[in-house]
Amino acid sequence: MSLVVPGNVRSVEFSNLRADEHYVLQIYGSSANRRSKIHRVTATTGPEPPTELIFSDVTETSLAVSWTKPNTIFTGFRITYIHTATGKSHFVTVGSQQTHVVLSKLSTGSSYIITVFQRRMNGKTDFYRTWDDYKAGFGNLSEEFWLGNELLHNLTSMGPVSLRVDMTSGNDTAYAHYASFSMASEEKNYTLTVSGYTGTAGDSMKYHNGRPFSARDKEPDPLGIHCARAYMGGWWYKNCYKANLNGVYGSNSNNQGVVWIDWKGKDSSIPLTEMKFRPSRFSPATHG
């Protein structure tokens, strides 16, 4: 594959690449009969995620979860689910060949969140990352992590889902629930769509609705400064933020912390955050 672009173009995007593959990219400049030296770099695309997550066989205390296995070879799959009333997290790990699991011993008449996709809790994981890092996901699922933009796009494209954000600072807790949540494809820069706020934290995500994702090495639609670099995170920045949950952990200066302005302002970094989504067909969470 090759592409010729004008000399004033500073970036180009290659699409329709295969997942989990190594690529060698080379670039050179040309003008009339002159040509520069070739510069080469290597890149690896993110792994293909599981798809077609389906819930079935729902009883009073159990439900079945199935998925389509990707071509990427994994050592296993991990299904995380959270009881919305208590906030208690559970997970099941299954083998790489498995495409079905039954979640049992659930509480009768309760709602469960199936997927946690972000957690901040101790500052052990660096969230000032590249576009490819955020695309593939990073961190420790038992502690701090980002699940991955490509997987988030695929999962939120399967059907209507809602978003819940839980935050704790000392003895204070707050939550924000959004009735509708989705992320566009990488071709559309993982643009955020979010609406339908209820909760106790304030509607800080409304400011970011319709914005593309930005990372330290890529800001698709800057409105002034390079927000991801200025605030050292990856997020759907605008100019720049009202929420910045992937900011610098524990930083209470330069507005670079883990921030939800409508709850704690810009100068207070929130010690514990979780972002979760679930199918919208479940009733909205109303517990703080």
UniProtKB/TrEMBL annotation:
Keyword terms: Disulfide bond, EGF-like domain, Extracellular matrix, Secreted
UniProt keyword Disulfide bond present: yes
UniProt key word Transport: no
Pfam families: Fibrinogen_C
Residues of the Fibronectin type-III domain: 49-139
Source species, domain of life: Eukaryota
InterPro entries: Fibrinogen-like_C, Fibrinogen_a/b/g_C_1, Fibrinogen_a/b/g_C_dom, Fibrinogen_C-term_domain, Fibrinogen_CS, FN3_dom, FN3_sf, Ig-like_fold
Subcellular location: Secreted, Extracellular space, Extracellular matrix
SUPFAM superfamilies: Fibrinogen C-terminal domain-like, Fibronectin type III
SMART domains per UniProt: FBG (SM00186), FN3 (SM00060)
Domain Fibrinogen C-terminal: 54-281
Gene Ontology CC annotations of this record: extracellular space
Identification of the protein by name: Tenascin XB
Species annotation: Nothobranchius furzeri
GN (gene name): TNXB
